[in-house]
């Protein structure tokens, strides 16, 4: 409880700061600039043309095949159809993997369901599907340190059936290491309304051990909204979509959901004409930025990542130290964690989710001798490690 309270205070400080000072990373911005309104619109038109996609509709399988074809056309070769039986029908999730360069066994899952209820589901959830296709198209040639897994779940509208199946049959048996589940469901907005805000969803449910990290990722998602899209963000709780089975399994989740709650989903009027294409376009920009940010993408032209400049500026000092040890992380985005161990490997100090600025560790009680430290950023990526000497003046 204390930890959560502390984290939320730190996060709000961080966000206030971000709103004033954060500028776009040039590499991320260069990819965001490639988000195509036309490609989003034509994918949404295609999804409308397929019609209703309930489990007894042939359109559901056609849409699944079309998704597979779309990913193949982009150049993906690890595309799985995750078949299972539900109500006597053989249906499938579409699962596409892009291996990470440094942490191939750790996955950033980006998901959104492709089945619909009653109507063509252009908003619910054609919008999420089209955005995921756009992300996949733009990041296909960009190396990422963490693996990406795009999943289009089926039978979400029947009670998260596809995602429950996936967690039970894949995530748990394979003991999959999931860095984050980023769920995009119903982000089309409402035609004719000013759609200028997106809801960033965080985990406020039991189990609670995974909530703090969900809040941190969601704060970052909200901050990225202000930097890479023309939208405002607000934070709310996650519910009723495919991240729930993952959440129940203790995974870290975040998500996007429209702020103006459309009346059209689950009706025959959930059409392209009734959503706001500009809104979808802005959310696609945010989603592309978030994908690059959360997976630590590389800029292949310069060989650097978006973090490289800031990483160098983290300092731990003085060395040797005596009564106090200071850590300074001048970049605005990431809280960092510090682990300090003595010579025998015992953890002497563990400071979690410290925000940027100068952080002071009282060290008077530490025994003189050698210490090792490791600093990781809020997303768990190692920033710096080394040795320090404690002396007594
Ligand atoms: Zn939905």
Question: What can you tell me about this protein's structure?
Answer:
This protein is α+β, with helices and mostly antiparallel strands. The chain folds into 2 domains: about 1-300, Aminopeptidase, CATH 3.40.630; about 310-390, Immunoglobulin-like. Helices cover about 35% and strands about 30% of the residues. The chain has helices at about 1-20, 25-30, 35-50, 60-75, 120-140, 160-170, 210-230, 245-250, 275-295, 310, and strands at about 80-85, 90-100, 105-110, 145-150, 175-185, 195-200, 230-235, 255-260, 300, 305, 315, 325-330, 335-340, 345-355, 355-360, 370-375, 380-390. The longest helix is centred in the first third of the chain and has 20 residues, at about 1-20. The chain is elongated and about 75 Å long.
What's the helix and strand layout?
Blueprint (H helix, E strand, L loop, with lengths): L1 H20 L4 H7 L4 H14 L7 H17 L4 E8 L2 E10 L4 E9 L10 H18 L6 E7 L8 H11 L5 E8 L12 E6 L8 H18 L3 E6 L5 H6 L4 E6 L18 H19 L2 E2 L4 E2 L2 H5 L2 E3 L6 E6 L6 E7 L4 E8 L2 E6 L6 E9 L4 E9 L3
Parallel strand pairs: 3-4, 3-5, 5-8, 6-7
Antiparallel strand pairs: 1-2, 2-4, 6-8, 9-10, 11-12, 12-15, 13-14, 13-16, 16-17
The structure holds zinc ion (ZN).
The site of zinc ion has 7 residues, from helix 5.
């Amino acid at each position: 409880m204390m930890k959560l309270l502390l984290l939320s205070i730190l996060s709000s400080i961080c966000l206030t700061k971000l709103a004033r000072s954060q500028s776009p990373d040039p590499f991320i911005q260069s990819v965001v600039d490639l988000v195509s309104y036309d490609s989003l619109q034509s994918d949404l038109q295609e999804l409308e043309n397929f019609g209703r996609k309930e489990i007894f509709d042939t359109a559901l399988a056609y849409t699944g095949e079309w998704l597979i074809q779309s990913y193949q056309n982009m150049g993906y070769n690890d595309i799985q159809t995750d078949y299972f039986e539900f109500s006597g029908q053989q249906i499938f999730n579409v699962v596409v993997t892009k291996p990470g360069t440094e942490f191939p066994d750790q996955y950033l899952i980006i998901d959104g369901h492709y089945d619909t209820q009653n109507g063509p589901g252009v908003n619910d959830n054609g919008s999420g599907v089209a955005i995921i296709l756009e992300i996949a198209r733009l990041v296909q040639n960009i190396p990422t340190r963490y693996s990406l897994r795009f999943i289009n779940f089926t039978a979400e509208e029947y009670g998260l059936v596809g995602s429950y199946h996936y967690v039970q049959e894949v995530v748990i048996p394979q003991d999959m290491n999931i860095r984050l589940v980023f769920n995009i469901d119903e982000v089309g907005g409402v035609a004719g309304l000013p759609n200028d805000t997106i809801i960033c969803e965080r985990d406020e449910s039991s189990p609670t051990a995974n909530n703090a990290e969900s809040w941190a990722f969601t704060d970052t998602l909200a901050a990225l909204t202000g930097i890479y899209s023309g939208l405002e963000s607000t934070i709310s709780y996650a519910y009723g979509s495919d991240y729930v089975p993952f959440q129940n399994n203790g995974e870290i989740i975040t998500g996007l959901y429209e702020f103006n709650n459309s009346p059209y989903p689950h009706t025959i009027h959930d059409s392209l004409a009734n959503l706001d294409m500009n809104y979808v376009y802005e959310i696609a920009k945010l989603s592309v930025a978030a994908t690059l940010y959360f997976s630590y993408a590389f800029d292949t032209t310069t060989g650097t990542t978006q973090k490289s400049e800031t990483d160098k500026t983290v300092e731990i000092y003085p060395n040797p130290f005596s009564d106090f040890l200071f850590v300074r992380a001048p970049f605005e985005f990431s809280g960092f964690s510090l682990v300090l161990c003595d010579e025998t490997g015992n953890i002497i100090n563990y400071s979690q989710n410290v925000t940027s600025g100068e952080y002071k560790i009282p060290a008077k009680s530490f025994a003189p001798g050698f210490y090792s430290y490791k600093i990781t950023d809020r997303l768990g990526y190692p920033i710096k490690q080394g040795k320090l000497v404690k002396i007594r003046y």
